[in-house]
Design brief:
The protein has 232 residues and is α+β, with helices and mostly antiparallel strands. Helix content is 46%, strand content 20%.
Length: 232
C-alpha cells in the first residue's frame, strides 16, 4: 500500500512538473495577445496623446532590444539553433479586389551599428568568433558587395539580408556604419494584420505568410496603434 501511495505521489509530482513546463513553453499567439493587452492597458492610463505615444515608444524599444540581443546570442547558446532568415514584414499585400502591390525600396541611409536596432542572424559559430576577433581589434569595414540591409522606418528596425557575422560582430563591438535601403511599411496597415503566428489579408482573412518572430508582429500592431494616435 505504501509503495502504491509513493508511486501515486511521484506521478502527481511529475504531472506538476510537466504542467509547469507547458505553462512556460513559448506560445506565439498567447505571448502576442498578452503584449497587445499590456500596451492597450498602458496607453489607456495616459490622458494626453503625446504621453500615449511616449509609452508606446518605450515598449517598442524594450521589445526591439529583446529581439536584437536574442538573435545575437542564439548561436552562442545552441550550435544547432534553428535561425529563420526571412524578411520580417510581408513585402507584398492585396487590396479588396485582390490586386497585388509591393512595398517600395526608398532612399539609402546610413545606420550606426552602435546605437540602432539592427537585426542580424549569425548562424555559424566559427565565422562569428573569427569576425569578433578581427573587428574587436580593427575598424569595421563596410563592404557594398557583401553587406545588404533594409531599414523599416515606422518601427526603426534595420534588417540584415547579407553580411550577418561581420555586422553582428560590429554590433557587439559597438563600432561600424552600414548603408540600408529605407522601406515604408505604412501601406500594409489597411491590408495586413497578424495574430503573432501568421500575416493575414485584412479583406479575406486568408493567410499571407508565417511570421518569423511573434515579437515582430507585436511591433507591427503597436506601430499601427501609434500611427492612428498620431492622426488624432
Amino acid at each position: 500500500m505504501l509503495r502504491g501511495l509513493l508511486k501515486k505521489k511521484n506521478n502527481i509530482k511529475q504531472n506538476i512538473i510537466t504542467d509547469s513546463k507547458e505553462l512556460y513553453k513559448l506560445n506565439a499567439e498567447r505571448e502576442f495577445s498578452y503584449a497587445i493587452e499590456f500596451v492597450n492597458n498602458a496607453i489607456e492610463g495616459e490622458t494626453k496623446i503625446e504621453d500615449k505615444i511616449k509609452m508606446i515608444d518605450f515598449i517598442m524599444d524594450l521589445i526591439k532590444e529583446d529581439i536584437k540581443t536574442d538573435l545575437l546570442t542564439k548561436i552562442i547558446y545552441n550550435p544547432e539553433a534553428n535561425i529563420t532568415r526571412y524578411f520580417p514584414f510581408p513585402m507584398c499585400y492585396y487590396d479588396k479586389n485582390n490586386n497585388a502591390y509591393r512595398l517600395h525600396e526608398g532612399e539609402e541611409i546610413e545606420i550606426d551599428l552602435s546605437n540602432e536596432c539592427v537585426i542580424t542572424y549569425p548562424y555559424n559559430r566559427e565565422k562569428y568568433v573569427k569576425n569578433i576577433r578581427t573587428i574587436s581589434k580593427e575598424p569595421f569595414i563596410y563592404k557594398n558587395n557583401n553587406h545588404t540591409a533594409y531599414y523599416f522606418s515606422q518601427v526603426n528596425i534595420c534588417y540584415i539580408a547579407n553580411g550577418y557575422h561581420s555586422i553582428a560582430s560590429g554590433i557587439m563591438c559597438n563600432k561600424g556604419k552600414i548603408k540600408a535601403k529605407k522601406i515604408d511599411i505604412t501601406p500594409l496597415y489597411d491590408y495586413v494584420y497578424t495574430n503573432g503566428v501568421y500575416w493575414y489579408n485584412t479583406h479575406t482573412n486568408n493567410i499571407l505568410t508565417t511570421l518569423t518572430d511573434f515579437r515582430i508582429g507585436i511591433l507591427y500592431e503597436i506601430a499601427k496603434i501609434k500611427n492612428n494616435l498620431a492622426k488624432i
